[in-house]
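Here is one such tokenized protein:
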Amino acid sequence: MKHLIKVFSLSLIALLAIINCRHHSLADRADWIVKKVSSELDLNDKQKAELQRIKKEILDKRKELDVKMFPDEIVDQIRQPQIDEAKVNKAFETSGTKRDQMRVFMTKKFMEFHAVLTPEQRNKLADRITELLKKHSHD
């Protein structure tokens, strides 16, 4: 179970990074993921409702934490004639803390979603994640 959570967490991070490359809002990307997962796993209505609830909670949490790929404080420092090392380190530390909180939250949400899947759906999801990792691997 711990291995599955680690694999999923890494896969989710990779998937979110890939999705972040698109030029759509976060809500649009989340809707696309929900639609894709619902279709590929052939979710029933109860499972779809659960996935929609989880999506909303994830979007709300991300907004609450204000998680960004690159902290504004770092951009502000780039504009300065001299970079303040302490401010840069503090910005990355704060950003890392937010990312850690989001990772813990996402793991809990994944466990909730995992609990409503059938064994066949879990296997299909694992296979699809494996395919995505192979496709986007740079090895």
Q: What stands out?
A: Residues 2-135 form one domain. Helices lie at 2-20, 26-40, 45-65, 72-79, 85-116, 119-135.
